[in-house]
Amino acid sequence: MTNPQDAGLGVTLGTLGNSKDTTKKKSVLGNSATDPNKILPITYKWARNYYKQGVANNWTPEEVPMASDVELWKSKDGLSEDERRMVLWNLGFFSTAESLTANNIVLTIYKHVTNPECRQYLLRQAFEEAIHTDTFIYCCDSLSLDPDEIYNMYLTIPSIEDKDQFVVDITKSLLDPNFQIRNTKDMQQFVFDLVGFYVIMEGIFFYAGFAMMLSMLRNHKMIGVGEQFQYILRDESIHLAFGVDLINTIKEENPEIWTDEFKQSLIDAIKKSVDLEQKYAVDSLPRGILGLRADVVNEYVAHIADRRLESIGLPVQYNAKNPFPWMSEVIDLAKEKNFFESRVTEYQQGGSLGW
After folding, report:
1. pLDDT tens digits for the chain (355 residues)?
2. Lesser CB count within 10 Å: N end or C end of the chain?
3. Residue ranges making up the domain that contains 334
4. Is residue 56 part of a domain?
5. Per the residue annotation, which of 50, 51, 121, 138 is the catalytic one?
6. The total number of structural domains that make up the chain
7. Among this protein's residues, is 138 annotated catalytic?
8. Contact predicate 130/102, CB 8 Å
9. Distance, CA of 24 to chain centre
10. Are 241 and 2 in contact (CB under 8 A)?
11. How far, in Å, CA of 147 to CA of 136, rounded?
12. CATH no. for residue 285?
């Protein structure tokens, strides 16, 4: 089973281990011999483990207080214009991206992934995407932001529009209700789109934004929004790990799809996503703030991309170092608050921030 703690910072995603029962002729996709209503016996234990981790990490945005964020946001001298720009750009991208990921899961991935324990996790993931969507509603309401401005940024900000359109283009089979897996070519298309959805969308496009927003938290600015991004990152790390194990399981069960030509198409798509994410970083950070510069964020994006390539058995392309070693600490940090100032739910759920 993949360890989701990595989030691209040193641990290889996608380890299948010995969790698959090879004595039974079952497969994770389109298996007519599989009863989707019969979850026992478990065939893919990694999927069941991800479901349990998701349940243990349950949270809602209302648990995070926003009073200090509201005060800072409304203060004339609280944030620079560049800091406000960075926050708005990330709220604008994530608010629509979470809806896109939820649609992919509910409308198509669930239809083709017939294994019951994988489907159980997909339902959990869809719920978490709904929580993430609710988070951005909560942020907009708390900060009195113009929802039309935030939710239309995928149409008004070119670097955000380019990212969203790229994901739509490379997940066409996931968005096509008539798509069916009938042969090797169809299987390759489905895996290509899974890579677009899990590896690129959730594994690369989200991470520059995470680094930016968690740098705010690290500098004690917009703490409420930063904590919510921390929770989202924890969820997304498990989503990514599940997606990688799903892709690697399909590869293992259908080795004929893993041709040199197909592998190169995946490498090309991931390299294109790096270009788009780096342009987004420059757009979000036209000048350096909080110790962040666009060129440093771009190095981080390249580093993350190499980890994603390795996770699905493809060669690294950038050999980039990780310029943000503090990201691991932020990801793993549990909430530590005075007992008398915290609610019961924060003790029940906040403590599971560390894996």
Report:
1. 555 445 444 333 444 433 444 334 568 886 655 566 678 888 999 999 999 999 999 999 999 999 999 999 999 888 999 999 999 999 999 887 877 777 777 777 888 898 999 999 999 999 999 999 999 999 999 999 998 899 888 889 999 999 988 988 888 777 777 888 999 999 999 999 999 999 999 999 998 899 999 999 988 999 999 999 999 999 999 999 999 999 999 999 999 999 999 999 999 999 999 999 999 999 999 988 877 899 999 999 999 999 999 999 999 999 999 999 887 666 554 444 332 333 333 333 333 333 2
2. C
3. 45-353
4. yes
5. 138
6. 1
7. yes
8. yes
9. 32
10. yes
11. 10
12. 1.10.620.20
Residue 49 inside a domain? The answer is yes
Bridge partners for 113 per DSSP = 29
Beta pairing partners, 289: 292
Q: Which amino acid is at 228?
A: Q
Domain annotation covers residue 305: yes
> The tokens 């030509």 sit on which residue?
261
CA–CA distance from 176 to each of 103, 172, 189 (Å)? 11, 6, 12
pTM of the model: 0.85
Instruction: Note whether residue 39 is domain-resident.
Output: no
User: How far, in whole angstroms, is CA 91 from its chain's centroid?
Assistant: 15
